[in-house]
Amino acid sequence: MLLVGMKLTILITIFGLVIGFFLGALTGLLKISRNLFFRKLAGVYIESIRGTPIMVQVMFIYFGLPMALGMRIHPMMAGIAAIAVNSGAYIAELVRGAFQSIDTGQTEAGRSIGLTHFQTMYYIIWPQALKRMIPPLGNQFIISLKDTSLLVVVGVGELTRTGQEIIAANFRAFEVWLTVALMYLVMTLSLSRLLNYFEKKMDINK
Amino acid sequence: MIKIKNLYKNFGTLEVLKGINLDISKGEVTVIMGPSGSGKSTLLRCINRLEEITSGTVIVDGQDIMDKGTNINLIRTEAGMVFQQFNLFPHKTTLENVTLGPLKVRKMSKPDAEKLGRQLLEKVGLADKADTYPDHLSGGQKQRVAIARSLALRPKAMLFDEPTSALDPELVGEVLEVMKQLGREGMTMVVVTHEMGFAREVADRVIFMDDGIIVEENIPTEIFSNPQNPRTQGFLRNIL
């Protein structure tokens, strides 16, 4: 039963982070774009997510939004959306930081061989920024994975929720919570191993 | 080849270039000297619009670079730029650094671009470093790759922004050698440098800048042995 919960946790994390990554990459790029409106828009999104607790965001997406829109939302979808929207804001800041850390000489060199602004970004800046992003990105992935345990409040049957249900039946809190904790640890450790592997693989000067 | 008329450039309230007039003809090697902050680098960067000019005109190969109809990306390929800090792409091999422009801007096929790339690396004496990443090269080697990278676009002129200033003294010679060869081959060059030997040997003209204007210009032998302006005299006394 715990394994079923773990599977759900992994699913929500993967979908949430994939969407969150694209959302974050887009927002991060908007934040450094030349267009003032886009910069403000990205800023409002990032600040409002960073400035509110994820628990409130989850409740808002699951209970608040459906009421305003007059439709029901599947708890699982709400969970994925919450992880995506939340991680997206933090990832946006990582993306922005990584891009800005690349020396302006790289852009100038790209432009001076006749590449367009977009080509310079795509061939020169992005690959270098991506490499610098990996360690902080790994950090965010692990945080988001653990944040899925908050989805307990909207009744998603992920790992923490399954743990609660088992305890409700057998009262063996110590064994169950210890197992749940170890299962989270297995997931986060595998994730950081995976990211380490990518980091090594991208290091051309190994 | 390059015509500059009444060029002004401000950074905020700071006037960096205060009315530059300069004509550079095809095949000419022009050396620009002057104290730091005199606007040499800014002038060079205005020629391929890495800096937006405040007023005046810059015409490269018959095209006004500020004209709306001008494709600035093409102008930049006609006037290759070599930077003080090399600015090689660290995630690409030496050969990939050189072939990126031909592949993406000139739309060359991969075999053609690689053939050209290897030829140019050979020309700058680095044929054996094609698959090396920039981090494993010395400063002098990096700068020679940077020159090859610019040449790969077959530019009509080359702009050098203090190309040897970031190099250890013993590495300066190898870079200057490549530049001299280019000059002898008839490349139009504008070089910001304090290398007097280079100026003497290759330059057709030396321009001395101070405080945003061209103070004096002459053929190298004249300007070095018989400078007219007191500011030029003072500057040359300090660097000799």
Describe the protein.
The complex is a heterodimer of chains A (206) and B (240). Chain A has 206 residues and is mainly α. Chain A is built from eight helices and no strands. In chain A, 34% of the residues are buried. The model of chain A has no long low-confidence stretch (mean pLDDT 92). With 240 residues, chain B is α/β, with parallel strands linked by helices. In chain B, helix 4 packs across helix 5. The longest helix of chain B has 16 residues, at 169-184. The A-B interface holds A 103, 105-106, 108-116, 119, 123-124, 127-128, 131, 204-205 and B 48, 50, 73-74, 76-77, 80-81, 83, 85, 87-91, 100-101, 104-105, 133, 135-136, 146, 149-150, 152-153.
What's the arrangement of secondary structure elements?
The complex is a heterodimer of chains A (206) and B (240).
Chain A: H1 2-31, H2 36-50, H3 54-69, H4 75-100, H5 104-112, H6 117-147, H7 159-170, H8 173-202
Helix pairs in contact in A: 1-2, 1-4, 1-7, 2-4, 3-4, 4-6, 5-6, 6-8, 7-8
Chain B: E1 2-11, E2 14-24, E3 29-33, H1 40-47, E4 55-60, E5 63-64, H2 72-78, E6 79-82, H3 94-104, H4 110-123, H5 139-151, E7 157-161, H6 169-184, E8 188-192, H7 196-202, E9 205-210, E10 213-218, H8 220-225, H9 230-239
Parallel strand pairs in B: 3-8, 3-9, 6-7, 7-8
Antiparallel strand pairs in B: 1-2, 1-4, 4-5, 9-10
